[in-house]
Amino acid sequence: MGHLTRAVFRAELRRGIAPWVAPAMALTIVVPMISKAAQWQGSWGETQGLLHSLTTLIGGPLAAAAGCWQGGRDHRRRTVGLSLSVPRSRAAQLVMAALPVAVWAVVGHLVAVAGVLAASWPYTGAGGPSVGMIVLDAWFPVCAVFTGFVVGRVWRWRLAAPVLAAATYLVLGIPSYSSSDLRFLNPAEQYYLADQVPVAWFVPVMVLWTGAPVLALVIGYAVRRRFLAVVPLVVAALLAPLIVSSGEDLFREDPVAEKLICTEAVPQVCVGGLDGPLLSPASDALAGLVSRLEGVPGAPVRYVQTSDSRRLPPDTSRLPYTSRGWTVVRDRIADPAGYAWETAHFLTERDCPESVTEGVEEDPATVRVRETDDAVVHWLAPWGSSRLDPAQGAVYLNRLTAMGDTERRAWLGRYLATRTSCDPKAVPAL
Fold first, then answer.
1. What letter does residue 252 receive in the DSSP assignment?
2. pLDDT tens digits for 346-365?
3. Does the first or last residue of the chain, that is N or C, have fewer Cβ atoms within 10 Å of its Cβ?
4. CA 228/CA 49 separation, integer angstroms
């Protein structure tokens, strides 16, 4: 019997729709990935986040349709009676017919994943892909195939497969627009993995949650003791509150991302641990700004990539936020001059409460400070056309430019000493 089962399984692997599922699944994932390569190459998290979305939202309906088509094969061939005459149980027949499609779906998915990860690897820094997410994503097409197979067996209509694909896409896609934590029950929820990793129990819990309803469906269709379908449904009911209550806590900060990688030269340029390849481009982009601040008292000794400048010490300034596909493409800063300008802007940014600035926007002293800040930014990092007010800001820039090196360094030193001050009287005049 074992030899016969293996022979049947090998035959099913080689014939019908099953072998075509692998290239279809691979192309379904790879083609959209290629079109968005600039947005994910260089980040394991961005790469796997997009892989997850494509595998579930696009690959899932494809797998369900393939399973449905396979399930309706006997009805199309009018060989249902012949299948029932075979001594194998309905469950065994189901597994022998659906499993080959699921296997090829997983093969296609893994081929796509391997190719995409290989394309991202040359541009990545520390860290690595999450094996758990790969397993979870590979599991979903298996569940989709078996679900589609049962639907194909029950729903005797030639257009059942494409209709099921469309319905699956809607069922998976619509919940992603919700802001409720119930959306995390959706296996196709789009996860933000750029600097996060799943908690330890996330993958096994989601594997059970995704597979339990499918197992219940298969048991209800193919097993004589259909009441056993209650068991996986109970498991799913127990897991659902855990997933919903956890919500955003299903993921934690990637410890690698929290570490800083810095240049040895002073002033140091520091980026997050996952963005190590950006260290050299960032240093090159800031070379002009650093040169202009050389010898200035109070100039930053460190430039750090962070989202919260309030936690930085006085001798440290903030680097701009980078977004792959926009400001960074394959570990190259798309606009170095703009990057330097934004860094200079952060250096002169005053975190003043609204109670200080509200109602005094046109106060001459406040305007003078704002235009002085803009003139310093433009002198440190010129970028594009001048954005200075020609009546005052441009005058300040001309005065700063006309100063001798010694005089300018002294004035900048006094200016930087007040860069966190909200008192206009404290800011030195140009």
1. E
2. 998 887 765 444 444 567 77
3. N
4. 36
